[in-house]
Predict the 3D structure of the following.
Amino acid sequence: MRKTLPLLAVLVHFAMLALAQTRTITGLVKDERGEPLAFASITLKGKNKGTTTDASGNFRIEATTEDILVFSAVGSKSREIAVGSSSSYNVTLEKSESMQEVVVTALGVQKQPRSLGYSVATIKNDELTEARTTNLQNGLVGKVSGLNVSTVNNGVFADTRIVLRGIRSLTGNNQPLLVLDGSPIALSYINSINPNDVESVNVLKGANASALYGPDGVNGVIVVTTKKGNAKKAEISIGNTTLFEKVSFMPDLQTRFGSGSSYDQFGDGVYDLIENQTWGAEFNGKDTAIGRKDENGLFQRLPYRYLPNEKRDFFNTGVTVQNDVSISAGDEKGRMYLSLQDVTTRNVLPKETARRTGLRLNTTRIFGKFRLESSLGYTVTRSSQTNSSAYYNLINSPGQVPVTSYNDYVNNKWADHNHYYNDYYPNPYEDIDRQRYNLRRDDVIGNIALYIKPLSWLTITDRLSTNFRLNTSKSTTGAIYYSTLAKGAIYQARNDKLASVSDGSGFSSRIMNEFLVSADKDFGDFNVKALGGTSIRQDVSKSENVSGGNLAIPTLFNVVAYTGIPGASESNSRSRLMSVFGSASVTYKNYATLEFTGRNDWDSRLDPNNNSYFYPGLNASVILSDIVPALQESRFLDYLKLKGAWNRTGNVNVGVYELDNVYGVAGGFPYGSLASYTAGNTFYTRDIKPETVESYETGIEINLFKNRVNLEATYYYQNNNDQVIEVAISSGTGFTSAKLNAARFYNKGVEFDLRLTPLFKAGAFTWNASGNFSINDSKVLDVYQDINELGIGNTAYIIKGLPAYTHKLTDWQRDPQGHVVIDTLSGYPIQNSVPQIYGRTLPKYIIGLNTDFNYKGFSLKVVAEFRGGNYIYNSVGVDYGFTGVDRLSAINARQRFVFPNSVYYDGAKYVPNTDKVVINAHYDFLQASRFRGTQTNYYTSGSFWKLREVVLSYDLPTKWMVATKWIKRATVSLIGRNLLMLRPATNWWTDPEFSNTTSNAIGTTTIGQTPPTRLFGFNVNLGF
Amino acid sequence: MKLRAIILSALCIGIALSSCKKSWLDINTNPNTLPNSTPDYVFTAAANRTAAVLDPNEIGSYWSGMWTQSSTYIISTTNFAYNFNNTNFNYWDTWYDILRDYQFVIDTAEDQAMPYMKGPAEVMKAYIVHQLVDLYGNIPYSDALKGTGSLAPKFDDQKAIYEDLVKLLDQAVVDLKANTFQAQGISADIVFKGNVTSWVHFANSLKLRLLIRQSKIAGRDAYITGEINKIIANGFLAAGEDVLSNPGYVASDGKTNPFYDRWGYAANGTIRPLARYPRPTVFLFEELKKTNDTFRLKRLFYAKGGEGATAGVSSQEEKIDNYVPVPFGAASGYLSQNTSYVGPSQIIKGQFGKGMVLMTAAESFFLLAEAKQRYAAAVNLPLTAKEYYEQGVKESFRLTGTTATYGADKATTLLTSGKDLADWDASPDKLKAIWEQKWLALVNYGGEEAWAEYRRTNFPVTPASASASANAARPVRLFYPQGEEVSNGTNVKAQGTIDVFATKIFWDVD
């Protein structure tokens, strides 16, 4: 390169000499704010010649006095200037009228929104980070229509599930692709990104927008662009955010009865000293013995009354401290951005902590026609959590038990494992210390991109990227040696508990290279953009786990201390993908655009003879307000755009190594040198192919009243065929399931985005508001041959003719009017042995509301969100019911009652039941599987309103800064997150957003989710 | 010019890529598991899994009146009030899963140069298939185990399956005798270590089980006697020749004897919670005590409170008053610590390495006794029914450790006690004596077989469950599992309405 460059320069120079009258024109191009415009293009009108500005907005071009210079830049109005006598021009380009900003589309291509035939939402850094979320995805909640980010648990690493526009795969991945600075990476890396580093997030909402990504982009793409640095003076920014976290909501529990697990001849609960269950006697406030006698023959004594705050008080006030430093600098030759962030979190659950430290270095360097950009992020995440069922042990403690007084189990005799009152479950504090899980994760995400602009209309890009993750984890379980007294008495103390350890490590990496050639050229009234490229990539992962039990030295948590037989496992995977893709678009007079896209993938996960798939697409947009004269002249309508798109893509929901049947190590083997392998239970076929997804999208965008009102409406429809499902087959075949292409369904929806900027303005006061509303629905059209339904986990099912997914639950037997049918002898309701079909698991409606009030330096921003139309199964209630703490387990104060809204069958008809009381309203009924196994008892609406973000911030006046001489700006803000949750009164168990999984089977809550929290705190940010 | 260079180089890259594309992408070979296996490895897995299937024996032990549960656990209405549906008792999936492994061995043994693995796999296939018939009646058989070759296999008639199994066992004997085990097979054979004679005996005893099972069907005698006479020369399970499977259990959780692991102890000696679950029924103890068979009783169960500090010895004094059974199906009043635990015949702390019992020699002798008693001279069995019967009892005393612990005379004492159902000569109904003693010999060893025999013989007459009404119907079979109904609905529906209290298995004629 080094040699060819001067040679080229010489050649170009000779060409120049041929046109004798030319002279050199130089200048600077700026935007209307006075910022230099990099890469603005300057062409000579009518001539095939041009240049672009450098990073500092400077340009240099040879022109004659007759030439007309045409200045243009993405997002700006183009401007023509006749070359006069001056040889230096400072040009300011105004922003284009309708949509000022450019958006980043697939493959990092920047485009004007007006030319897009599909939906892309842009979230700028300030919108994203206002509420100082630790995770990027939580900053998106409520701000993008069609986006559903569910935080399914509380905790230092609350898992999230992200879905754009519903689902396209019944059993496969439905979460979007993450593209960081141009490199597609696994979505899980989103947790490693420092939101403050993010310049903007562009959400490519559907397969149409992300057509160029092929199957990877079928679920939409979250395009994250990090800050590149400032071309002006160096700026240093430091910030601190401190957030406090409190449990916001505890389940509703019964408050009348204490420990016990039986009833007397009157059906009243009997007190039991050592019980963990709360099926005992009613509270009476009397001084009562609990637990077993100590060495002196004495009991622990407690007032027998309900302690209302014990369970909530078990939880700490969590604290998250986030410290940020960033340096941004640059000049006309290059830019850099360096940041360091440290986030430490102490969760509400005792002794649960996490720390994330991240470093980012982004650089840009310009060498003539070459531009080299690099993006590098390194994040270390560490956490320490408990493996124990502390929450279970806490919440299921009898109401009179002062759980928090057992905090110090070393010095408090009644708290240690030899004297703890409960015979069956351990002291949660001791268990938290005894069972630990420590994790360290190192993530490196980086890429180097080289841009060459050999011609004004041609750009060549090569991007080499890699990311890798190293996970190391250790689970430890401490030993407990019980005293002789305890061994002889306490049920769980009969055997000493021995120490064990499990140590795992995993490595995963991706290497990818992407080569792109793009052209952008005007031909008269037509603008043609063309792009072609190819990419190759390899994904590799490996994990190993070793474990040892019965540790010889109970304090040496190292596998070497094992006795018996250690456990060991290993897993490897490797896959490769090769792609060729391209797009071509034609725009006429900047108001009508038609674009074709195409991509061909060769995927190693598919059979080599059957691994090439082509995915075509098409989209168009037209700005009616620029064409129709009546609209052009309208006084209130500023902009009216129609758009439409179609594409056919795939979804490779085939795992690595899922083509052939395998034989795995049989359970228990090897026994010494005796090995054994058994046939796998899933039937795989080499004929498997990607799921096909055909997407249609159409929409309208309107700006009214001088762009103060902006409304977008989009309708999408997706036909999803050849779904890869693992269908249960007759075990008579020798297999229990077969993985094949079968089911089909459609997914459709509408999205509305309304922005009022400003809604109200008076002097220095402005009030902006925006809202989005999405409806999503789906319907399963076919499952597989005669099979009409398929469970996908939890209570979620795919059922022909119904939305994906639908709850299928056990219910009471009901008469045609829906009354519960009872058994006349016992008065008990009868359980229907056939599970019944109930409502959808995924929200049908999502509403996001954003509003901000600004007055001088003050601003108040509020984000609220509604989700509804879906239902949840609170299986957590089954656990609460087991021990009798659940509100339902104290129906009618456990006295015999007529089952509400019940009927009985008199042999001919159903007769309303008014007098047949249940023969037992205690353990035999409310604790029995008859009641707790009837899942509809714990089934509620999943609807909620949440006040997601409230941020009050104040920019300190500049004049104060001047006095300090070195501080340029200062902002302080007060932050609140998830301050309020509204939900139906029938749901007293937990946050309906919670779930025991982030998989498709979302919609079931269990004891694994600790109570939801609210966060509040402050942020201080200084710029130098 | 520059443009041309770019296009040219892009083309070059393209050509280079496409030429290596195929091999570059052909990397999808699973490094984590085997793409194929060999008959020896698969047989070992299948045999070990067959022996580890405890669930049918558990429910069989309840429904044949041997076991019930302690009140430490909430009463299972599924088990003791017969309150079950097609989501309960799915033994189907496990059995078919294992059958596929045996079918693999049968199909590939010859091609993979291990023909000696074929016979054992055929015997084991028959061992499982007949149990499936005994539990479910008509089942997929001729159309089964074909993968996607038949995704919804049709069901075969149960009687025809039994007949085919008899033929399969004949074939197994032919295959066994034709092939000597090689080293690989000897280590893979965790049942008989390559002993062809024992395999042939097992095949014949199993065949005898299938034939005697059909003995109450009218007009079946000629078929049964004919089939028995065919196999007498090759012999049956001899004294001491129990069919045990043992891969070499070791003291590590998941690697110990599965019966020990579930109803006894963890590898480190910690008692399993489920050790507190199964309990002997009052009826069982009464039957044993009626004939003063208390020595065997003490081997079958521990005294209340279970095993003590000395391995194999009860914590309480081993006098008969300390052995406390539980009325069948009783829901309360019998906490685990106050009642008898499964005993040293099966569970002794630390003895995690015993083989799992697939079939006992005792059962084989009782089958021979019944064959001789029923068909007399029509079968060419060399000994008398009484001789077979008495050997059966002695085999039970040997296997339970009664002989070893209390002396060889204990069986003789019982056989000469003058008590009905124990002393052959003192028993007016010889078949009932055989059935009673076989029932006792199956305690803790063969619940599933005991329940099948209970349904066939209706003997011994066990009391009703305390959790069901006195004349509540008892189950005579299981429902087809829900999964099969969903995935193979048409064929399941073709079997008609299944009434688990009335739709009897073909051999259950009265």
Observations:
- Residues 1-20 of chain A have pLDDT under 50 and may be disordered.
- The first strand of chain A starts at residue 23 and ends at 31.
- Residues 76 and 96 of chain A are 4 Å apart (CA to CA).
